[in-house]
Write a structure and sequence with these properties.
The chain is of the alpha+beta class. It has 1 helix and 6 strands, in the order ββββββα. A hairpin with a 7-residue loop joins strand 5 and strand 6.
């Protein structure tokens, strides 16, 4: 069966996930087609959910929505229209091991 997350279709021939408007390549961790909004969606044409998938979701790849917009303690995502440098996240050893194990398991399936 080729169904994945809600609305996604997995293309077995090219190993991409089709999300209505563009294809996502899970091994690269990014879209391989540019944002249909062009530059009005930001300088990075291949971004998803403002590069913050824990705080933002984008059902159809066209309009990001915030998970909890009324949370006063939530950090505000950077304005992706203005180059502002890079962000980093500190992961504890347990989380790092979990990520590496998941990556190894997903590569074994390919």
């Amino acid at each position: 069966m080729n169904l994945r997350f809600a609305g996604q279709y997995f293309d077995e021939e090219v190993w991409t996930h089709y999300n209505y408007c563009r294809d996502y390549q899970p091994k690269l961790g990014r879209y391989i087609e540019s944002d249909p909004f062009g530059l009005s969606g930001g300088l990075n044409l291949f971004v998803y959910a403002e590069q913050s998938p824990l705080d933002v979701y984008d059902n159809n790849g066209l309009a990001p929505k915030y998970v909890k917009p009324d949370n006063p303690n939530k950090r505000k995502p950077p304005d992706h229209r203005i180059p502002s440098g890079e962000e980093s996240v500190m992961l504890d050893m347990k989380m790092q091991k979990s990520i590496l194990d998941n990556q190894k398991n997903s590569e074994a399936l390919v």
